[in-house]
Amino acid sequence: MDTLSLDNPVFAAYAIAAALGVLKVMGQGWMTVYRMLKVNAGYASPEDLQAGLINRAPAPDQLEVNDYVDRSRRMHRNDLENIPGFWVAGLLFVLVSPPLWLAQVLMYGFVLARGLHALAYATKRSHEVRATFYTLGSLIVIYMGCHVLWAVVTG
Amino acid sequence: MDTLSLDNPVFAAYAIAAALGVLKVMGQGWMTVYRMLKVNAGYASPEDLQAGLINRAPAPDQLEVNDYVDRSRRMHRNDLENIPGFWVAGLLFVLVSPPLWLAQVLMYGFVLARGLHALAYATKRSHEVRATFYTLGSLIVIYMGCHVLWAVVTG
Amino acid sequence: MDTLSLDNPVFAAYAIAAALGVLKVMGQGWMTVYRMLKVNAGYASPEDLQAGLINRAPAPDQLEVNDYVDRSRRMHRNDLENIPGFWVAGLLFVLVSPPLWLAQVLMYGFVLARGLHALAYATKRSHEVRATFYTLGSLIVIYMGCHVLWAVVTG
Hints:
The structure is a homotrimer. Chain A is mainly alpha-helical.
């Protein structure tokens, strides 16, 4: 059996979690676009003040930080600090042949943790709530990284 | 035939597109360095105001945001929001054995879209032009993520 | 022998370097958390000003940029601009079967360069010192990307 094929249920779990992570990261870009268009503010570049289909009513303060838009950018940044680490740690984890139950718990746990983190961030829950889900996701990736190192060293 | 070998033309297309993406992301760092040195501004850390080989004429306003330099940083951020998603979605896409023509269209299409996005951003084209190329690249990655999920679920 | 298995010493070197990169990126998040809690400043979202376990003494200026905390965020951003590129370039590099000695030099060299970059950044060494280690890491990733392209084209 090939390790990186859908016949391997550990790889299938990884493929689902990693693909959902892809949709989360790309979707966050679209949440920023949606919010930017909705409030017609939070633009990033001077040329975005030109009148056009996107910006029908230009005004200089559209380049200032707008919390509604910037919140989506902060969510995106937090994703980029955590999800690519999962992508590579998860792939390496698959390649060192972990137990299936452990792979499923960690991978679906990561998806759940990041989903709840996004929900908490978007709805302005307290720092404690957001930090809890961040911690869960981060510890999963750190565990997978350590597991891989251990497997190589004891290999 | 091994899926992840150069004998597989789907993998070869991915390897070309992913490696070009690597050169784009790393090259963007060097564009920032080039612009920072050219205008001697847009530094990021207080210690960068020490006189030295990089900064021969220190001045406090060198830490302020400089659009010429910051534009390259914004291009870099946009890359990081899109290209790592392509790297993992593309790899998973290869592993679920898509048709060759589809893989080539999507992968070279992504490279083209991101190249044109960079050109539009660097030359300050309108938000509409930049958004068009962003959208094309983003939809390609989103499609690949959905294709992978569908392949796993229908296994 | 499977290319992506621990029986392949080139893959083993990659797995060690990539996993250390994962721990570096995730650890940088925790350095930000540690610094934020230590100085009780540098928060990112308005709701972080609510009193709670994390923030026992809220004050409006806690949302301002704090260099001690922001330094860790800048280190994180620099990691994200370099380490994911290594993850994918390194994986592709393994898949085109480079000489073992070259793979080990590049992969452990990257880990060393990024470790020294982090040390130089955290301890506020001069821009020249930081730039030297950045350059070394960046050139390694760029070399691996070119090597992969060359292998595909001459494949």
